[in-house]
Amino acid sequence: MSFGTLLNAQSVPEMSIQNIDFGVNPEFNNWRHNADTDTFLVVPITMDDFVDGIDSFSFNLVYDPNTMEPFENGHEINDPGYIMLQNYLGGVPFPMVDGRYFSMNVFAIPNGMKMLTVSYSDSIPFTIGGHGNSSGLLVYVPFKTYNKCMVGTDSILAWNGYVDSLSTFVNPFQTTSFILSGSMGTYSTDSNTLQINNGSLTFVSVQALVTEFANNLEGSANHGVAPYQFEWSTGETSQNITPSAAGDYWVMVTDAMGCSDTSSIYSFSPSVGIAGNGHNNVIVYPNPFTNVLMIQAVGNIRITLLDLLGKQIAIQTGNDEVRFYRKGLNPGVYLLKVDLEDETIYKKVSIN
After folding, report:
1. How far apart are CA 128 and CA 215, in angstroms?
2. Cα distance from N-terminal residue to C-terminal residue, the chain
3. Model confidence over 193-218: pLDDT tens digits?
4. I need a labelling partner for 223 at 20 to 30 A (CA). Which of 101, 234, 255, 301 fits?
5. Angle at 134 between CA 131 and CA 140, to 5 degrees
6. For 91-101, how does the pLDDT look when each residue is reduced to its tens digit (9 = 90+)?
7. Which residue, among 5, 71, 4, has the nearest Cα to 43 in the 3D structure?
8. How many CA atoms lie within 13 A of 122 on its CB side?
């Protein structure tokens, strides 16, 4: 059994199952339908080239039922009355209202996967204005996942539904991967008059981070759904803590979906002032840093970056502020020496 798609067609309409990375585009995930407690995601299906006179379409999608299943309210979700999604992501050109036919049907296939057939028909043809206003969007296909904290990539494949071993189609009413039809004719992947591009979904979960700012540690999160809860290795539950001593610290972050992650261990060492009046009024942030490290103090500043063996790597000066750029330095831990007018500060800094 193969999931083939047309790849060699030229000058034919092109349909796309959009690739969605939820870390980059979280707006396509975690939608709710009315009072349902379950959340769902949407996969946009687009028509990249306008086809005149089209008033119906249908297609088959293969997906992994171990990770997700179609969300049953596809008709309502694609209706312009579903205001939140329509306003935020943009509406579809075909309003899914009474008098139009819309269906989603699931079929089991022999390899443990499942196939979803989506069908739509209307008496009003798709217009070029509708195509432009909706950026070519035909429909949102909604799915809900079993594991809200899942990480990884799932493919969404177009398929005509033919099973070689059975010599038959899974759905005898939909025997082509994708078909468009209307008053101006019919376009399909089987007749080489339509091209379909497969897509994928990349799932991410909450990622806990620790950064240092002026002798404080701050917990934060990438991805996930706000609001977040924080629990430090010290037992504190605030987002920021002020460590009382040097040592190893970490934070566990839990998002609104109940997904949790524990940060890497952060080795904290407070700024130490010597040969001066003890006013440790130096701000070094962010720490760790990726591209730029900011050093702020009052007056003239001279910084020296050393490796852990004491070898000098860079020297830079400024007034009230120094911006130190990574400039190709390898990730790791370094020693920062900050010379002020009346004291010297030493600080460990890390490069991601």
Report:
1. 59
2. 45
3. 999 999 999 999 999 999 887 678 98
4. 234
5. 110
6. 877 766 666 88
7. 71
8. 17
Q: Helix, strand, coil % (nearest 5) of the chain?
A: 5, 50, 45
pLDDT in tens, the chain (352 residues): 444 433 333 468 899 999 999 988 999 998 887 766 678 999 999 998 888 888 999 999 999 999 999 998 888 888 877 877 877 888 877 766 666 888 999 999 988 999 999 999 988 888 888 888 888 888 999 999 988 899 999 999 999 999 988 789 999 999 999 999 988 889 999 889 999 999 999 999 999 999 887 678 989 998 888 899 999 999 999 999 988 888 899 999 999 889 999 998 888 877 654 444 444 578 888 888 888 998 988 889 999 998 877 788 888 999 989 999 988 899 888 888 898 888 888 888 888 8
Identity of the amino acid at 74: G
User: Which residues on neighbouring strands pair with residue 226, listed in sequence order?
Assistant: none
Amino acid, single-letter form, for residue 327: K
Q: Measure the CA–CA gap between 93 and 126, rounded to whole angstroms.
A: 7
CA distances from 159 to 13, 33, 164, 221, 256 (A): 17, 29, 13, 38, 36
User: To which H or E segment does residue 76 belong?
Assistant: helix 74-77
How is residue 72 written in tokens?
């049953």
Structural element, H or E, at residue 85: helix 83-89
Query: In whole angstroms, what separates CA 309 from the centre of its chain?
Result: 40
> Which of these, 274, 293, 275, lies nearest to 284 by C-alpha position?
293
Residues in the chain: 352
Taking the CA of residue 110 as centre, how many other CA atoms within 13 Å lie in the half-sphere pointing to its CB?
A: 13
Name 16's bridge partners: 46, 197
| 3-state DSSP of 14-54 | EEEECCEECCCCHHHCCEECCCCCCEEEEEEEEECCCCCCE
Delineate the domains of the chain, giving CATH numbers in brackets.
14-203 (2.60.40.680), 205-270 (2.60.40.10), 271-352 (2.60.40.3080)
Helix (H, G, I), strand (E, B) or coil at 230: strand
Q: Token digits for 103?
A: 């269906």
